[in-house]
Specification:
29% of the residues lie in helices and 15% in strands. The radius of gyration is 29 Å and the shape is globular. Helix 3 packs across helix 5 and helix 4 crosses helix 5. By secondary structure, the protein is α+β, with helices and mostly antiparallel strands. The strands form five sheets. The chain has a seven-stranded antiparallel beta sheet.
């Protein structure tokens, strides 16, 4: 069977499966239609409407002024308010809609196969990283088809409606190919141009996001592709989402067979789905019907089919599937290039033990197959990699060939390995202009942040007073995909304490100290685990910056979480279990009446005003005032934290600043764990940045603060810095260097950049953290521009300033 025929038959099979799903979802579509007839423009769930509205506001998909104007004239409940805002976003588009669409279109390519001396168009694909092209499995059912394919960018007409000169590239399925028949997707690298430049640098690429909120039922979708192999065409806006299934989206739009593999965009040009099939009308036995009502037969052609809808694979489902694949380091590198919102950038690579490798049963081709838990050899996967099941049933990716690890820092400058030297700067999520000599439209992403294959976290060598890591196992120290960052390679379970942790003796030569100062909500945490999480994020950033990584035990970790809660109990400041709170959980998270309560409300109102909320009424006497409720809602809608989290953070900050007993309890607890002399690198987060500023007034005079790092800090609010022991906003005299990292979607950092208010303020580093983790410390530390300042300070030789 020739390739074109195989692709066509595979496509027909997917069309039949799509028709079955369409019939199964009849009741959902009927319910949707009924709600639309009742006047609902977007008949989706309240949760999806809220998520979509928040995403639009956070990403400037809709001007805040337009949202206010649409909702200020009458009292609306939340679903009606969301629907009103979404209606404005649908009907009015910013000028940038057109150039952003043109920019997205450049990432789309026509796919053809070379067969019998001819090139036959078989589908569409689009770039999702500097190197990877995404299309359908039925377009590339195996590596052989991909090897014979040519992808053609700029196969389109110009603004003068004359054909442009297209650019053609081959694919590299032998280097990397991930495909799934059920989800009908294939991911394969495009061969770089003759100079070695990745195609994403020339045409841009699309950031895929695993997050929800990209599209709701009733919203329009836009598709760019090569229907029937023609030059690039766009189906725009007069299409709408009909149904959202577990793995697929169904939508009304005009497409043709060559559109297989096209991106399905929302109006902000975010990819929401991978188009894979039209939905044909079928009879009661599932047979495809023609437009004249007769049975469709193979020879009738696709044009004769009575197409009634279309179907695409949800991007979030594809990304979750990719995150679960057992891949080695080299293949993981391809996935980690797909941007921070993909959820793939910080995949943890788990190393199998040397013992398991030594005892693995040899396979017939000379490769080792890892033994399974029942003593049998685990079968080799299709790519020749063994997948060893872990004790809990999860598949552990096999180790690739061993590479040297970076030496730990011990107070001397250690040159990084070749892999670390080649580490690129972190992902810049803003569009950037292409290099000189390429097209004028900027690509969607700056692809310079490709993590090098084989970059590793370091394991400290023995002999310096620290614990020797087990020789038979080690893992890279990076944030994990499914939960908090972890660092493995330690055989015994850690001692689970609730007190602070000193640094290991001799860490960084003994004269230099790395201190992690945590924020709120740690009262129930295990300090060892929290310290490992901080080190995991920092090591990720250090690796990206090409610097040696650290061992968690080398960091001093003062722990005041329990002391803070105990000191606040007399204030009845916080309900520590919002899930069991009655009434309004946000009210339960607020401090009780009194000066702390007034300061808390002042912080919320000030932060909301800084975020653009118009002035509101003064605080009331009972319960949260309208101004505070409005402020919390505004901050939640315009940043990445929910109302309860925002209330809890500012509640703790208010308690610390307003009550001297609470402040003294926290500072005394931290001071007990700190070194009494030497050079200090102090890294602080959230409430910990406020504690750090006060701490600087009480440190032992023999301590020199070489670097202060504040991340996710509220120090930019007047109500905060005016209540510091130093009186702020003045740069502390004893701090040699100060770096402040903040994220625009982190509501705690609304007052940033600090340099706007602080005299001789810090060096500012704005970063873009992953959606849903805007305030997380491991996200902040994973950025190379943050981590490199810490790494440079730790690598520099320690010295003691002369006294007297």
């Amino acid at each position: 069977m020739d390739i074109a025929t195989e692709v066509r038959e595979n496509r027909v099979g997917h069309s039949r499966a799509a028709a079955k799903r369409y019939r199964w979802s009849d009741s959902d579509r009927e319910a949707t239609s009924h709600r639309q007839r009742q006047g609902e423009a977007f008949p989706d769930t309240p949760e999806m409407l809220a998520a979509r509205t928040a995403r639009l506001v956070q990403r400037n998909g809709l001007p805040v002024e337009a949202a206010l104007e649409a909702t200020r004239t009458e009292a609306l409940d939340r679903p009606k308010m969301y629907e009103r805002i979404l209606g404005v976003a649908k009907d009015l588009q910013a000028w940038s809609f057109l150039p952003r669409g043109a920019r997205a279109a450049r990432t789309v390519a026509r796919i053809a196969v070379r067969e019998n001396g001819r090139e036959i168009p078989i589908g569409t694909g689009f770039l999702v990283s500097p190197r990877l092209l995404l299309t359908n499995h039925h377009v590339f059912p195996d590596a052989g088809v991909a090897r014979s394919a040519v992808v053609e960018f700029d196969a389109q007409v110009s603004v003068d409606n004359t054909p442009e000169v297209s650019q053609r590239f081959l694919l590299a399925p032998d280097a990397f190919l991930v495909a799934d028949e059920a989800l009908d997707f294939a991911l394969v690298p495009v061969v770089p141009d003759a100079t070695g430049r990745p195609v994403g640098e020339m045409f841009g690429w699309n950031r895929l996001s695993v997050q929800t909120g990209k599209l709701v039922i009733g919203e329009p979708v836009n598709i760019i592709g090569h229907p029937s192999g023609r030059l690039k065409e766009i189906s725009i806006r007069e299409n709408r989402l009909e149904a959202r299934l577990d793995d697929f989206l169904q939508y009304q739009t005009d497409t043709e067979p060559g559109s297989s593999g096209s991106p399905v965009f929302n109006d902000q040009w975010e990819v929401t789905a991978l188009h894979h099939s039209g939905v044909p009308r079928t009879d009661g036995r599932g047979r495809i019907l023609r437009r004249d009502g007769q049975l469709w037969r193979e020879g009738d052609g696709d044009d004769a089919v009575d197409w009634i809808s279309n179907e695409g694979v949800r991007v979030s489902v594809i990304l979750k599937h990719l995150a679960a694949l057992p891949l080695d380091d080299e293949r993981l590198t391809y996935l980690t290039e797909m941007g921070p919102e993909s959820g793939l950038q910080n995949l943890t690579t788990v190393r199998t033990t040397a013992t398991a490798t030594a005892t693995a049963s040899p396979s017939t081709d000379g490769r080792s197959a890892s033994p399974s838990t029942d003593g049998r050899s685990a079968p080799l996967s299709a790519d020749g990699l063994s997948a060893a099941p872990s004790a809990d049933g999860e598949t552990i990716p096999p180790a690739s060939d061993a590479q040297a690890v970076l030496p730990a820092m011990n107070g001397q400058t250690v040159p990084p390995s070749e892999d670390a030297r080649s580490a690129a700067p972190p992902q810049d999520t803003r569009p950037v202009s292409p290099p000189q000599g390429t097209r004028s439209e900027p690509p969607l992403m700056d692809p310079r942040s490709v993590p090098p294959p084989g970059t590793r976290a370091s394991v400290a060598p023995p002999g310096d007073g620290r614990s020797e890591p087990p020789p038979e196992a080690w893992r890279s120290v990076v944030p994990s995909q499914g939960g908090p960052p972890v660092e493995a390679g330690v055989r015994a379970a850690p001692l689970r304490t609730r007190t602070g942790l000193p640094a290991a003796p001799g860490a960084f030569g003994g004269a230099k100290h790395l201190v992690f100062l945590h924020g709120r909500n740690h009262e129930d945490c295990v300090p060892e685990e929290v310290r490992r999480n901080w080190a995991a994020g920092l090591n990720c950033g250090l690796t990206r910056a090409g610097l040696p990584t650290i061992v968690p035990a080398d960091a001093c970790f003062p722990f005041y979480g329990r002391r803070l809660v105990d000191a606040m109990r007399p204030l009845e400041a916080l309900q520590r279990s919002p899930r069991v709170a009655v009434g309004d959980p946000v009210e339960a998270a607020a401090p009780a009446a009194g000066s702390t309560r007034r300061l808390y409300e002042q912080l919320i109102v000030e932060a909301a005003a800084r975020a653009g909320l118009p002035p509101a009424r003064a605080p009331g006497m009972e319960g949260l005032s309208d101004a505070v409720h409005d402020g919390l809602s505004w901050l939640a809608d315009t940043t990445d934290l929910d109302r309860l989290a925002i209330a809890a953070v500012f509640g703790d900050v208010a308690a610390y600043l307003d009550d001297q007993r609470v402040r003294d309890a926290v500072l005394d607890c931290v001071l007990q764990e700190l070194p009494r002399s030497g050079r200090m690198v102090l890294v602080s987060h959230s409430l910990g940045t406020v504690v750090a500023m006060d701490l600087l007034t009480r440190l032992d005079p023999a301590v020199e603060v070489e670097l202060l790092v504040t991340a996710g800090s509220p120090l930019g609010l007047d109500s905060v810095y005016e209540r510091l022991i130093s009186g702020g906003p003045y740069r502390p005299d004893r701090v040699a260097r100060w770096l402040n990292a903040w994220c625009p979607t982190d509501s705690v950092t609304i007052g940033c950049p600090l340099s706007d208010r602080w005299q001789d303020g810090p060096d500012e580093v704005p970063v873009v953290n992953a959606t849903g983790r805007a305030h997380d410390i491991d996200e902040y530390l994973a950025h190379a521009e943050v981590a490199q300042e810490i790494g440079i300070s730790l690598c520099a030789p320690a010295w003691t300033a002369p006294h007297g």
